Amino acid sequence: MTPTLNQLHEARTALDSPLFSDLPGDIDISFEFFPPKSEKMAQTLEESVATLQPLGPRFVSVTYGAGGSTRERTHEQVVRIQNEANIPAAAHLTCVNATKEEVNAVAKHYWESGIRHIVALRGDAPDGGAYTPHPGGYANAVELIAGLKEVADFEISVAAYPEVHPDSPDAQTDIANLKAKFDAGADRAITQFFFDPECFFRFRDDAAAAGIDAEIVPGVMPVMSFAAVQRMSGLCGTAIPSWMEGLFEGLDDRPDARQLVSATIAAELCRKLYAGGVRQFHFYTLNRAELSYAICHMLGKRPKRRPVMTARDRLEKAASERVLISDGAFGTQIQVRKLTEEDYAGDLRLAADQKGNNDILALTRPDVIADITRAYLDAGSDVISTNTFSANRDQPGRLRGRGYGG
Question: I want to staple 376 with a disulfide (CB 3.0 to 4.6 A). Which of 4, 92, 299, 381 is the partner?
Answer without folding.
Answer: 381
